[in-house]
Amino acid sequence: MRLIDTVPRRIAIGAVAIVAVVGAATGCRPEPAVTPSATPSFSVDTPTPGPSVTPIETEMPDAGFELPASCEGIYSTALLADLEATNPPLNDPGVTMLSTENVDVLEILHSGVPTLRCTWGQPSEYGLATNVTVVDAAQIDAIAQALPAAGFGCEPLGDGTVCRIEQRGITLDDEEYTRGESHYLGAGGLVTTAWINFTPEGYTEDIVATLWG
Fold first, then answer.
1. 10 Å Cβ neighbour count for 73?
2. What does the pLDDT look like over 42-92, one tens digit per residue?
3. How high does pLDDT run on average in the chain?
4. Which of 74, 75, 163, 196 could form a disulfide with 80 if both were Cys (CB 3.0 to 4.6 A apart)?
5. 3-class SS string, the chain
6. Is residue 44 packed enough to be buried (19+ CB in 10 Å), middle (13-18) or exposed (0-12)?
7. By C-alpha distance, which of 2, 11, 13 is closest to 174?
């Protein structure tokens, strides 16, 4: 007698599809941010010249990190070399696996925020997908509430929080599998990773150390 769970007959990275998500399999490049409209200029009559005034710049919230231009920039040299050796290639166009299946997080990832998508492995039952995304404090707070409610275990990591969940099972083909997600909530940024049968030791921790220092 075989154990049967709710997973599909084949849990394949290349088979994951969510209709509501557009462009999940994009290459490793930041999604363009929305260009703000120009600020209207106002003229002020100055009948009598006075002393010059130094303009005061509006301070923007500190993002805490900068979104790299490419996937190579989110890893340390050592981890990048390990990934290239153990589960290439980087960003196979056939890999459509999302970096999370949590609806609340997906809504933020696909709301137009700047994000960088990186995948490792070929379309198969072995690999991972990561998004590094620029978010604000309100979005971080919303995710911090949504993940524990969805069964994630969370703990401090650096100056932020890491939340993880893992699932083990047996497919209808009697093949064991392990899959899970690991998400880091940091100052100004979010790192989301989903994996199946491939979870490099210290993966999320390495990204955090590389991007936040």
1. 16
2. 233 333 343 333 333 333 345 467 999 999 999 999 999 999 999 999 999
3. 80
4. 75
5. CCCCCCCCCCCCHHHCCCCCCCCCCCCCCCCCCCCCCCCCCCCCCCCCCCCCCCCCCCCCCCCCCCCCCCHHHHCCHHHHHHHHHHCCCECCCCCCCCCCCCHHHHHHHCCCCCEEEEEECCCCCCEEEEEEEECCHHHHHHHHHHHHHCCCEEEEECCEEEEEEEEEEECCCCCEEEEEEEEEEECCEEEEEEEECCCCCCHHHHHHHHHHC
6. exposed
7. 2
Q: What pTM, to 2 d.p., does this model score?
A: 0.73
Structural contact between residues 117 and 99, judged by C-beta atoms closer than 8 angstroms = yes
| Tokens 């960003």 sit on residue | 91
For residues 58 and 97, the model is more confident at: 97
Distance CA 186, CA 63 (A): 9
Please tell me the class of the 89-213 domain.
alpha beta
8 has a pLDDT exceeding 70:
no
